[in-house]
Amino acid sequence: MISAVGLRKSFGEFEAVKGIDVEVRRGEAFGFLGPNGAGKSSTMRMIASVSPVTGGELRILGMDPTSDGPAIRSRIGVCPQEDTLDNELNVFDNLFIYGRYFGIDKATCRERAHELLEFAVLTDKAKAKVEELSGGMKRRLTIARSLINRPELLLLDEPTTGLDPQARHVLWDQLFRLKQAGVTLVITTHYMDEAEQLCDRLVVMDKGLIAAQGSPRELIQHYSTREVAELRFGVGEHESLVGKVEDLGERIEVLPDRLLVYADDGEAVLAQVHERGLQPVAALVRRSSLEDVFLRLTGRSLVD
Ligand SMILES: Nc1ncnc2c1ncn2[C@@H]1O[C@H](COP(=O)(O)OP(=O)(O)OP(=O)(O)O)[C@@H](O)[C@H]1O
Fold this sequence. Notes:
This protein has 2 domains: 2-217, 3-Layer(aba) Sandwich (Rossmann fold), CATH 3.40.50; 225-287, YebC, transcriptional regulation domain (Alpha-Beta Plaits, 2-Layer Sandwich). Helix 3 packs across helix 4, helix 5 (135-146) runs parallel beside helix 6 and helix 8 crosses helix 11. The radius of gyration is 22 Å and the shape is globular. The chain is 38% helix and 27% strand. It has helices spanning 40-47, 65-75, 91-101, 106-119, 135-146, 165-180, 192-198, 216-223, 238-245, 266-275, 290-298; strands spanning 2-11, 14-24, 29-33, 55-60, 76-79, 153-157, 184-189, 201-206, 209-214, 227-232, 251-255, 258-263, 282-287. A 6-stranded mixed β-sheet has the order 5-6-7-3-8-9, sandwiched between helices. The longest helix is centred in the middle third of the chain and has 16 residues, at 165-180. The protein is α/β, with parallel strands linked by helices. It has 11 helices and 13 strands. It binds adenosine-5'-triphosphate. Adenosine-5'-triphosphate binds at residues 11, 14, 16, 34, 36-42, 190.
């Protein structure tokens, strides 16, 4: 569905994407995970064929965005980071009129708009003004709108940023259903839980480059241990305690407010910590996540 080789994007002197290789296969959910400024949106805009490629090769559905932009855009759906719904129109017309832009005939537009309202659980809001919708409803409508041309490939730029946890889960369910229906999804996110929930494969992006790629499980297995013991001591004590616990794990991370000890058996680490007479203010054991992968690869946290 997408093939990028040495893909680059520059804005003047500044290189936002510094040569990345990506292959997205039909039917999968593929993620670009990375912090703000990593180059995710710049990559998505090139894939959406709305921002010119500066260097390297890019093929979308086998076509070249430089020469085949209109043909590509007619076969993909794009859900941008910011809601771009038309506040002047009601919910139904946001779908109907958008469909007309694609040259779809009125009867088909009407039929699809009704179907999509149902899919987005917004049928009873058909006549409502956009401004009356909650943030979650607006995102669902934006996704519904991006499906009006029955795209094979759907691009979603940070689909759940700014939504509360419940609204995020409803949206994930909507995306999951699309995937089951065979739509290829490409998602950018800086939420590790979103990437873990939705993506079959993902790339971790940082500073315009790909730091790692694979399935969430592969990345965690490759770059982290099974578990992590999180130890919270008094403010300013963490650095000085590293020497007392570093032999307990395969790796240690010192964060401003806690020590992370990476080991396959986190409970055994905690037992040793207590045996050594150390008394953390708080301690817990959890499974490794993509956040740990990111920390290992970049020394930074995903969400700052
Ligand atoms: N039109 C532009 N002109 C100049 N610089 C830009 C432009 N668009 C993006 N950039 C810069 O390119 C870098 C990558 O931005 P991009 O939006 O692709 O990152 P991102 O990973 O999507 O981050 P975010 O999560 O904040 O959207 C940033 O440093 C940004 O300031």
